[in-house]
Specification:
The structure is a homodimer of 395-residue chains. The first copy, chain A, has 395 residues and is of the alpha+beta class. Chain A has 9 helices and 21 strands. The first copy, chain A, is elongated, with a radius of gyration of 27 Å.
Chain lengths: 395, 395
């Protein structure tokens, strides 16, 4: 049973004294049979808590600097009309008491805490946003990550990896943007996709009759979940791991990239659609290296909380020399398998993450092969923030 | 000085006893020199409040049904590191105490209450969303409404009328959608735009060399504000109220529509871009009628709080017979001035407002002239919810 947390705030043009504010409000709480406790605040204004027999908690604060805040915590099963009545009564009375001194009244939608279905998935720049998710469709922990698929009324099913919203069925705009927003022609081309286990890019690309699309995705469970629950994104393309013009390799992309480099194999397009959260590591040259997928560093300076899913084998030694070196290594591998006239396409980060984006662009300038790049900002419906996509080419 | 309100919630698979949970946490609050008060909850679990000398308030609740919630209220000027440390300490300790019983840990971005710039503009279906607004660029009360323009890092300037976000400079997608998403050709056409004072539609339309575009917008102050601060939307088109192929009439659209009907004037396109909140009324047939702009009813069943700005002249009588009849009247007027082969284009509502959308479509079936319609769902960047647009034509 979830807790519903209501707030009601009055921003004032001048500070008010609690003795002129509080007494008139007390009867409203008393009518609800709520018991008052007045707390000592050492000069920080009036702070009263009111507890009801039904478990309700109200907090009334008359701050010392022109702000009155009210909190009300009740339960999901409680009578909404009764809650509304209490808040309406407080709002009406405060409007009268504070008349002429009010610069803003703010009564926000309730914060729902501990609900069955979690609707709060903050943006990359750490803003609080409530989604319209109404059902947990699927959840499983794979060897690599926590996989959730949640249903949204307006976005369809949404894939959430390690609590990071990856893609929803509404998000064709993402797929089109990472494919170059219609500027690229994939007919007869060789394409390598890193990540892309939701099948969105593949599903769009095969329509253009490419020569061969190779997807390298590490997590079979993501593919299976998307095949079943994200058909608005992948259609039926994931029903088979191999088709006339595509193959899906369920592998870590790093050794695959290295093999391609050794063989001298090149691609007309490399599309990096890896999840922004690093999920694999591989042993290398006698010791173990934590492998940060390409875009990890974009998150280094973000407010995003991140979980590293390290799969440490016994007696392996964890060595992280320089995150930036690893990142350049991966980017270099991708550029190495790119045909001289090819394009490397990838998602970047939220438009607001200007520092991270700047660091990424700095890295592009430090590759062993000089590259040029362009970027564009796209609105992906379920993201609730503008997103930057990059096109990179060899100079 | 704003209040920062942090929450930290543990959803549990089974209820826990407070005696096994609370004692280990007390030292964390005591280290911050916070004074504990334990409240009687009549069987609703443990509820403790902790007040610090700096005005901090923490609330610890061990609910009786498998949920532990922590609230922390501090001030904007307080030491963030100290806040983080306290929340980290509580989260770490609770992870240990509740080990094996946790189904979700949720620590949301702080709710900022009473800030200079308000960043919370709930969606039409009343979800809590935090924007990245960082500056109040303009605010004024006109005779019709409160007008605000707020700056957002990613959306540019955003026009907010009566606390309803209308349009941001990023929202070309809105303008293109209400113009028919590229399916219509305005070259040489006669167009009537109701509302549209931000100049977005006009600015796009003149590129197609229409014969004449007439905008009827009631509020000069909105036009002036957009001319100055929404140039990403209107360019320089609002610098003159009249041009080679357009005129902007600063009037209530109802008498203008009636005049056109009387004159038998028709348009190839009528675009209804009126704000969803009704802002004018007009006297009619001896008594006063509250005029609800066309889309008002779309909001009737929404969770949106609405303010009616009634401009009551002395000794006028307020009569509202049937909202639906008025709405049909307005829609009828628009259809009456529409050329038989013309199109009526308008925004509808949020995709999630299914009931309101259904009621609107029902109204379309009750007009004096039979009409057909199509709709499409568009992602408007600053809206943070999918939006429905309608095309209507005479059968």
């Amino acid at each position: 049973m979830a807790l519903r947390h209501y707030t009601l705030d009055f921003k004032l043009s001048a500070a008010v004294d609690s003795s002129s504010t509080v007494p008139d409000l007390l009867s409203i709480f008393h009518e609800q049979e709520m018991t008052e406790t007045v707390h000592e605040t050492n000069g920080h204004g009036y702070l009263g808590t009111f507890v009801g027999k039904n478990g309700w908690l109200a907090i009334l604060r008359v701050h010392s600097h022109g702000l009155v805040t009210v909190d009300l915590q009740c339960y999901e099963e409680d009578d909404f009309a009764q809650v509304d009545n209490l808040l309406n009564a407080l709002e009406s009375k405060l409007k009268v008491i504070l008349n002429g001194n009010i610069t803003r009244i703010k009564r926000l939608p309730a914060l729902v805490r501990g609900a069955e279905v979690d609707r709060y998935w903050p943006t990359t720049d750490n803003r609080l946003v409530e989604y319209d998710m109404d059902q947990l469709v699927y959840e499983e922990d794979s060897a690599f990550q926590n996989i959730k698929i949640l249903h949204s009324q307006q976005y369809g099913n949404a894939l959430i990896l390690d609590n990071d919203l990856n893609l929803a069925e509404s998000d064709l705009a993402y797929t089109l943007a990472i494919m170059g927003s219609g500027r690229e022609n994939y007919t007869g081309k060789e394409v390598l996709i890193l990540g892309g286990g939701d099948g969105g890019i593949l599903s769009e690309m095969v329509k253009q009759k490419p020569k061969m699309v190779t997807i390298v995705h590490i997590d079979q469970k993501v593919i299976d979940a998307c095949k079943k629950y994200m058909r608005g994104t992948c259609g039926n393309i994931l029903d088979n791991l191999k088709g006339d013009c595509y193959q899906i390799l369920v592998e870590d992309c790093v050794p695959v990239l290295k093999k391609y480099v050794q063989e001298g194999k090149t691609f007309d397009y490399v599309i990096n659609d890896l999840t922004a959260i690093p999920i694999s590591m591989e042993p290398e040259e006698g010791f173990c290296i934590v492998f940060f997928f390409l875009h990890f560093f974009l998150y280094l300076t973000s407010g995003h909380k991140m979980r590293l899913n390290l799969i440490l084998k016994p007696c392996e030694l964890l060595v992280v020399d320089s995150t930036w070196e690893f990142l350049r290594l991966i980017l270099d591998l991708s550029i190495k398998v790119l045909h001289p006239s090819g394009k490397y396409l990838t998602q970047g980060n939220a438009e607001n993450m200007t520092e991270s984006l700047g660091l990424y662009e700095e890295q592009l300038g430090r590759l062993s092969c000089p590259v040029g790049f362009s970027k564009e900002v796209v609105c992906v419906p379920s993201y609730l923030e503008q997103w930057v996509f990059y096109s990179v080419w060899k100079k």
